[in-house]
Protein backbone atom coordinates (compact mmCIF):
# COMPACT_ATOMS: atom_id res chain seq x y z
CA UNK A 1 0.00 0.00 0.00
CA UNK A 2 1.35 3.41 -0.93
CA UNK A 3 0.83 5.56 2.13
CA UNK A 4 0.63 8.85 0.22
CA UNK A 5 -2.06 7.63 -2.19
CA UNK A 6 -4.05 6.11 0.65
CA UNK A 7 -3.80 9.18 2.89
CA UNK A 8 -4.62 11.54 0.00
CA UNK A 9 -7.52 9.27 -0.99
CA UNK A 10 -9.01 9.15 2.50
CA UNK A 11 -8.87 12.92 2.76
CA UNK A 12 -10.49 13.37 -0.66
CA UNK A 13 -13.15 10.75 0.13
CA UNK A 14 -14.08 12.61 3.32
CA UNK A 15 -14.15 15.92 1.43
CA UNK A 16 -16.45 14.57 -1.26
CA UNK A 17 -18.69 12.08 0.51
CA UNK A 18 -18.41 12.89 4.20
CA UNK A 19 -19.52 9.97 6.33
CA UNK A 20 -21.25 8.16 3.44
CA UNK A 21 -17.97 7.30 1.73
CA UNK A 22 -16.47 5.93 4.91
CA UNK A 23 -19.59 3.80 5.45
CA UNK A 24 -19.04 2.24 2.01
CA UNK A 25 -15.42 1.46 2.87
CA UNK A 26 -16.40 0.14 6.31
CA UNK A 27 -19.01 -2.08 4.69
CA UNK A 28 -16.27 -3.75 2.66
CA UNK A 29 -13.92 -4.34 5.60
CA UNK A 30 -15.01 -7.89 6.41
CA UNK A 31 -15.76 -9.14 2.92
CA UNK A 32 -13.39 -7.35 0.54
CA UNK A 33 -11.04 -4.93 2.29
CA UNK A 34 -8.78 -4.77 -0.77
CA UNK A 35 -11.66 -3.40 -2.83
CA UNK A 36 -12.10 -0.62 -0.27
CA UNK A 37 -8.39 0.14 -0.44
CA UNK A 38 -8.53 0.26 -4.26
CA UNK A 39 -11.45 2.71 -4.10
CA UNK A 40 -9.49 4.92 -1.72
CA UNK A 41 -6.10 4.73 -3.46
CA UNK A 42 -7.09 4.72 -7.12
CA UNK A 43 -10.53 6.30 -7.11
CA UNK A 44 -9.93 9.09 -4.64
CA UNK A 45 -6.15 9.18 -4.18
CA UNK A 46 -5.43 9.20 -7.92
CA UNK A 47 -8.47 10.09 -10.04
CA UNK A 48 -10.44 12.40 -7.75
CA UNK A 49 -7.19 14.16 -6.79
CA UNK A 50 -6.20 15.06 -10.35
CA UNK A 51 -6.00 18.81 -11.03
CA UNK A 52 -7.98 18.99 -14.30
CA UNK A 53 -11.52 19.24 -12.87
CA UNK A 54 -12.96 20.63 -9.68
CA UNK A 55 -14.91 18.30 -7.39
CA UNK A 56 -18.30 19.67 -8.43
CA UNK A 57 -17.58 18.92 -12.09
CA UNK A 58 -16.27 15.45 -11.22
CA UNK A 59 -19.43 14.68 -9.26
CA UNK A 60 -21.72 15.97 -12.03
CA UNK A 61 -19.89 13.70 -14.48
CA UNK A 62 -20.16 10.79 -12.07
CA UNK A 63 -23.89 11.36 -11.59
CA UNK A 64 -24.34 11.45 -15.37
CA UNK A 65 -22.45 8.17 -15.79
CA UNK A 66 -24.37 6.43 -13.01
CA UNK A 67 -27.73 7.63 -14.36
CA UNK A 68 -26.76 6.40 -17.83
CA UNK A 69 -25.65 3.02 -16.45
CA UNK A 70 -29.06 2.58 -14.90
CA UNK A 71 -27.99 -0.28 -12.64
CA UNK A 72 -26.07 1.39 -9.82
CA UNK A 73 -28.72 2.98 -7.62
CA UNK A 74 -26.81 2.74 -4.31
CA UNK A 75 -23.79 4.41 -5.89
CA UNK A 76 -26.02 7.01 -7.58
CA UNK A 77 -27.53 7.89 -4.20
CA UNK A 78 -24.07 8.35 -2.67
CA UNK A 79 -22.89 10.52 -5.56
CA UNK A 80 -26.04 12.65 -5.66
CA UNK A 81 -25.38 13.48 -2.00
CA UNK A 82 -21.70 14.05 -2.78
CA UNK A 83 -22.55 16.39 -5.65
CA UNK A 84 -24.70 18.48 -3.35
CA UNK A 85 -21.94 18.35 -0.72
CA UNK A 86 -19.33 19.80 -3.09
CA UNK A 87 -21.52 22.61 -4.39
CA UNK A 88 -23.74 21.28 -7.15
CA UNK A 89 -27.24 22.70 -7.04
CA UNK A 90 -30.49 20.80 -7.27
CA UNK A 91 -31.11 22.51 -10.61
CA UNK A 92 -27.73 21.42 -11.99
CA UNK A 93 -28.42 17.83 -10.99
CA UNK A 94 -31.85 17.94 -12.62
CA UNK A 95 -30.31 19.29 -15.84
CA UNK A 96 -27.62 16.59 -15.88
CA UNK A 97 -30.28 13.93 -15.38
CA UNK A 98 -32.49 15.40 -18.12
CA UNK A 99 -29.45 15.46 -20.44
CA UNK A 100 -29.09 11.73 -19.87
CA UNK A 101 -32.60 11.18 -21.31
CA UNK A 102 -31.10 12.09 -24.68
CA UNK A 103 -28.25 9.60 -24.46
CA UNK A 104 -29.42 6.88 -22.07
CA UNK A 105 -33.20 7.07 -22.55
CA UNK A 106 -36.17 8.28 -20.60
CA UNK A 107 -36.25 5.30 -18.21
CA UNK A 108 -32.71 6.10 -17.07
CA UNK A 109 -33.61 9.77 -16.59
CA UNK A 110 -36.82 8.93 -14.74
CA UNK A 111 -34.90 6.61 -12.43
CA UNK A 112 -32.30 9.34 -11.88
CA UNK A 113 -34.96 11.88 -10.96
CA UNK A 114 -36.54 9.36 -8.60
CA UNK A 115 -33.14 8.85 -6.96
CA UNK A 116 -32.70 12.60 -6.54
CA UNK A 117 -36.16 12.86 -5.00
CA UNK A 118 -35.33 10.08 -2.55
CA UNK A 119 -32.02 11.71 -1.61
CA UNK A 120 -33.78 15.04 -1.04
CA UNK A 121 -36.45 13.35 1.09
CA UNK A 122 -33.77 11.68 3.24
CA UNK A 123 -31.94 14.98 3.65
CA UNK A 124 -35.13 16.67 4.88
CA UNK A 125 -36.19 13.87 7.20
From TrEMBL:
Domain of life per record: Bacteria
Gene3D superfamilies the UniProt entry points to: AhpD-like
Family annotation (InterPro entries): 4CMD/NDH-1_regulator (IPR052512), AhpD-like (IPR029032), CMD-like (IPR003779)
One Pfam short name: CMD
Domain Carboxymuconolactone decarboxylase-like: 33-116
Record-linked PANTHER family: 4-CARBOXYMUCONOLACTONE DECARBOXYLASE FAMILY PROTEIN, GAMMA-CARBOXYMUCONOLACTONE DECARBOXYLASE
Protein name in UniProt: 4-carboxymuconolactone decarboxylase
Organism (species): Pseudomonas asuensis
Amino acid sequence: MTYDRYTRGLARLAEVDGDAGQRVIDGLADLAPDLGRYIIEFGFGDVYSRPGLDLKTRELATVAALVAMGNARPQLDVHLKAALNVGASREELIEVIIQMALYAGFPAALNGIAALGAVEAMNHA
